[in-house]
Amino acid sequence: MLNLNVLNPQQRQAVETLRGPVLILAGAGTGKTRVITYRVARLIEKGAAPGHILAVTFTNKAAREMQERVTDLLRTLPKRREHGSRNTGHDNDSTDHTSRLTGHSSTINHQPLTIAPPLSDAPTLQRFNASTIQRPTICTFHSLCVRILRQYIDRLGYKKNFVIFSESEQLGAIKKILSHISAQGEKTDPQAILGLLSRFRNGGSQAAAFADPSVAAMAAHVRARYESALRACNVVDFDDLILLTLRLFEEHPDVLTSCRARYRYVMVDEYQDTNAAQFRLVHSLTQEHRDLCVVGDDDQSIYGWRGAEIANLLDMEKHYPEVKVIKLEQNYRSTNTILTAANALIKHNVRRRGKQLWSKNGHGTKITLHTFANEEEEARTVVEEIECARMARRVPWSHQAILFRTNQQSRPLETALRHAGVRYHLVGGQSFFDRREVKDFLAYVKALVNPHDDVSLLRIANVPPRGLSDVTMERLLAASQERHCSVFAAMKNPAVQATFLAKARECLGAFVEFIERTRGWLADESSARQPSPLQRWAEKFLDEAGYWDDLRRGEKDKEAAENRVRNLRDLIATMDAQGSAGILPGQPLTERLQMFLDDLSLDSEREDEKEAQGDAVTLITMHSCKGLEFPHVYVVGLEDGLLPHARSKVEGTLDEERRLFYVAMTRAMQTLTLTHCAGRKRYGQLLPCHPSPFLNELPPELVEHAEDRVSEPVTVESGKNMFASMRAAVG
DNA sequence: AATTGCTAAGTTTTT
DNA sequence: CTTAGCAATT
Description:
Blueprint: H1 9-16, E1 22-26, H2 32-45, E2 53-57, H3 60-76, H4 97-102, H5 122-132, E3 137-140, H6 141-152, E4 163-164, H7 167-181, H8 190-202, H9 213-232, E5 235-236, H10 238-251, H11 253-262, E6 265-268, H12 276-286, E7 292-296, H13 311-314, H14 316-319, E8 324-328, E9 330-331, H15 336-346, E10 358-359, E11 367-372, H16 375-393, E12 400-404, H17 410-419, E13 424-426, H18 436-449, H19 454-461, H20 470-483, H21 487-492, H22 494-497, H23 502-523, H24 533-545, H25 547-554, H26 558-573, H27 589-602, H28 608-612, E14 617-621, E15 630-635, H29 646-651, H30 654-665, E16 668-677, E17 679-682, E18 685-688, E19 703-705, H31 716-730
Parallel strand pairs: 1-7, 1-8, 2-3, 2-6, 4-5, 6-7, 9-10, 11-16, 11-19, 12-14, 12-15, 13-14, 15-16
Antiparallel strand pairs: 17-18
Helix pairs in contact: 1-2, 2-3, 6-10, 7-8, 7-9, 8-9, 10-11, 10-12, 15-30, 16-17, 18-19, 18-27, 25-26
This protein binds a DNA duplex (15 and 10 nucleotides) through helix 3, helix 6, helix 10 and helix 29.
C-alpha cells in the first residue's frame, strides 16, 4: 500500500484529490514530481486502470524521470490481475480488479473510483488492451499526438508514413516559398516568419502584437503556401502534431470518443507553459469527464515568447469553475535566505496567484553580490570562488553552476575555466542535430521512408554529387509545382524526363532507381531477420551511396572529418535500440525506420548521459536551468539590458524577465552568488553597464556586497587589511 | 564545384 | 568582435 505519510499535508491533499479538476500550484522545489508520481500511483491503488492514466510533460527528460519513478512506486503496490488475457491468473494477490472497482476489497474508507469506459467502447478498449493497458501513458504532448496520428491520420487525408520536420527543415521550406513567392521580398527574415507562423497557427492571444506589420503580413501570406507544401509532401511539423490531432477530434467525433475513454485521468505538468492549442487539446479530452489535474507555477512561466499562455493557468477557473486549487509552498531545496529574497523579488509582478515559499532548511548564508569592472574579471573571480569552495570546503565542481542570460556570455567563462584547469560542461549550444552529417543522414532516412518529402529529397539528391546540378533540381522543382506533384513524382514522370538532356536524364534515372531499389529492400520482410538490421543496413547504404567518402573528402582537416564520421557512426549504432519497445519480429525495416525517426525528432537530448558524467561545473542559460538544482549557484551578468533584456522593454515583457531571475535564484540550494559588471564588451566595444533594477528588489539585509565582506574569524592579517582599507576610504 | 571575400546583424529555444 | 549567409570569382 502507498505510504502517504512521507508527504506534507498539502502534497497529501494533492495526491488524494482524485476526482474533478485540480490545480496544483507547485512552487520551485516543492516536490512537484513526487506529487505527480504519487498521484498516479494513488489513482491505480484506488482502482483506476493504469492504462487509463495520461500524464503529459514538456520534455522527454521529465517524462523519463516520471516514468521511472512511477514504475518504482508501483512496485510497492500489490499486483493485481490485469484486463484481457495476458495474465493467466495465478496471482495470489488479495484483490482483483473487479472487486476493487466495486469497492469490496478496499481497505481504505475512500470512495472507490468507478471504472471509466462505458461498455459501448469495448472494441476500442480491446485494441488498446492488447498493447498498452498495463502501463500509464507518461509522455510529452508531441509524442502523445504522434501516437494518435499514426493511428488515425489517414482520416485527414495524410498517409500514415508521414515524417516530422525539424526546425531547420521548416526553415528550408519557408525559404523556398519566400524565394518563389516574390523576388521583391529580399529582406524578410525566414526565422521571423517561422516564429510568427507558429504564433498564428497556435492561435495565441496576442499573436503578433509586437511584430513588424510588414513581416506579419508576409507571414500571413506564406501560411497557406507553407501548409499546402507540407501537406503535399505528407510532412508535418511540431505544431501540426497538436493541430492535426485537434482537427481529428473535431472532424471525427468517434476518435475523440475513444481517446476520451482511453485517457480517462489526465495530468499535465508545467501547465504554465502550455500554448493555446495544447490547452484546447487538454480541454477537449477532459471537458466531459473533468478528471483533469494540472500542475504548474505561474511564477516560473518563462516561455511566453514561444507562445506559452500563462493565462491557461491563471484563468483555470474560467474553464473549470469547480476546480480545487492546492498550493505547495514548502520548499525542500533552498535556504530561507534564498527563498525570502526570491519571494520579495517576485512580489513585484502583478498578475499572479500569490505564493510564499518557505523551508525547514534554516537561514543559510547571505546572498553574495559582486561588482566587477568587466566580464573578464567577472569570469576570473567566479572561477576563483569555485576553486576556493572546492579547496576550502570540499565542494566538488558538479555541485556548482554558473547561470547566464545569453549563450554568448559563456565565452569568457569558458576561457577562465579552461585557464584554471576546471572541468566544465556547457548545456545547450550547438545541437547534435544541427551538424551537417546528421542532417544529411536523417534526410536520407526521411526521403526513403517518404520519397515525396521534397525538402529531404532535395537535400540529399546531389549529396554526394551524382550529376544532379542545381539547374536540374530547379527545373524539377518547377515541373513539380506545375503538375502539383512531388519532386520525386516529377522525376519519375516520362514527360518531365523528356525535357532533360540525355546526360541529366541518365543521372535522374539512376537516382530514382537507387531510391526505389533501397525502398524495395527495406520493405522486404526477409531484410529484418538478421540481428541489428538497421545498423548494418545504414553502414552499407552510406557506403553504397558514397557518403562516407564524400564526408571525408569534404573536410580539409582530417581530424574534423573523422569527427564527423564518428558522430554519424554513434548515431547509427543507436538505431536498433531506439523504439525497441514495440518491435515485432517480422516488422519491415521501413516501419522501424519510421519509429526511429519519431523517437529522434521528438527527443533531442541524446548526449546528456555523456555530458552529465564526471565532476564538472555546469554552464547553463537561465532558461534551460528550469527544473534543475545545484548546491551552489552563480548568476552572472545581472545588468540592465541583459537581465531585463533590452528587448523586453520594447516588447513589454518585464514580468517574464523577472520570473527568469526568480527561476535562476531558486535553483540554489545552499549559496547564491550574484554578479554584475560596470562595463561589458558589446560588439567589440566596451560599453558601460548599470546594475539590474531587479537587484534593488531584493531585501538589502539578505544581500552582502563582496567588497564589504570581512573573512569570518577575524585574523590579525585580515584585521590589518580591514584597517588598511578603512584608512584608504577615509584618506 | 569550391573557395574567397564582403556585408549585415547580433535573446531566450522544452518539441 | 564574431559569424552566418550570399555573391562573385577561379
